[in-house]
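Reviewer 2 asked us to include a model.

Predict the structure of this chain.
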Amino acid sequence: MFRQIAISCLLTAMALPAVAHTRPHYGGTLRVEVEGDPWQRPGGLARQLVLDGLTATSVDGNVRPALAVEWKPENDNHRWQFKLRSDVHFHNGTLVSSTNVVAALTAICGAGCPWTTVRAVGSSVIFLSDAPLPSLPELLATDEYRIALSGAEDGALPAGSIGTGPFQFVSFSNGVLLLAANDNCWQGRPFLDSVEIHAHRSIHDQWLDLSVGRADLVEVPAEQLRHAHEQRLNVVVSGPASLLALTVSDTGVLSNANLRASIAYAIDRSALSNVIFQKQGEITGSLLPAELTGYSFLFSTERDLNKAHELRGGASSQQLTIVAEGGPEMQLAAQRMALNLRDAGFNIQVASSGAAQHVDITLRKIALESSEPGPALELMLRKAGSPAPVLEQTPASLYKIERQILDAHMVIPLLYLPCAYGVGGRVRDLRLRADGSPLLAGASLEDAP
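Predicted model (structure tokens):
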């Protein structure tokens, strides 16, 4: 009996260090490096840490309550009522009310909002729309509609930096943004004491800093995932998180539907995937990934140069312009597609974003922001510039909507890409959202005091 007790105590003692090793620690500063601007809208990492929306997206991609605790549609999705969470304060102590939420939403999009009217009624925010908005809860969970305290900046703070999120603004100097834990966050205090974000760092410098312990979290572009594994970086990778797609103008020479179709047939997706993105992208001819719908295979992904020539026919050789939104890999991808289009007889030039006076074709990434097929499709169509309400959620109805949109060839899907990050050895419990962004509020540091 005594031997059994002794063995039991020994096993318990051996297990305790393992438990202590995995238990989250409070404290410490997480050091993050990014290529872009952490305040950029949408998608800036600082915005995700500082600001909340009325709703939010969980790790599995489903919509959940945030500043709003409940909501309900009325009048066939033409009217929505969102009830606000009580006793929530902005970082400066201002109470969150329906009035300042409406002011924030109006400041975001003004007359270009998806809804017709938004107004404050007691502790609720009411949305009215001439067209049905069946996916409004999912729409409000996107980064575009995070709530900042409008009109509260004093000149020392970046615009829109006062929110209700798990971290609050401290300083932004010499490209280094410092955020401190919000002790009174409605979601509970984060484990980290602070997050330090170094902006405008090249991928090479990010990886170097990670290797010598000067960074804890760095970016790994999809086209460099293989190289990251060869460098033995500890990498976390999301599933399909963003759609690489062309959006094509329907004005000028491209008002000719056959010319737009010719562009779609001329693109070599396989070369794009193999050469530029190093086989890390999932080739697609549909707007939604295969795992959400099951019908992606019904959309062709094959290049047909003969068909491209046939559709172009003797159409004008007027010069077209293609631009790419994003970094160097997007510019390379645009140049590769320009070669494809020249093979089909198009006269096309690649211009830098913002420099071209007229843009005919744009290469962009569109985030997949829901794991529900209907809302995911509607959100994607809005971002692609072809908004259409998705009223029915059956695979057949979703396929029909996709077919109608894609047959117009104003949106041309190319690849689905993952998001990836290199993670330092002291970081624990880092998870990624469905859109690939990191959930830093739940992360902790192993060596935190």
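Confidence is low (pLDDT under 50) at residues 9-20. The longest helix spans residues 2-22. We have added this to the supplementary material.
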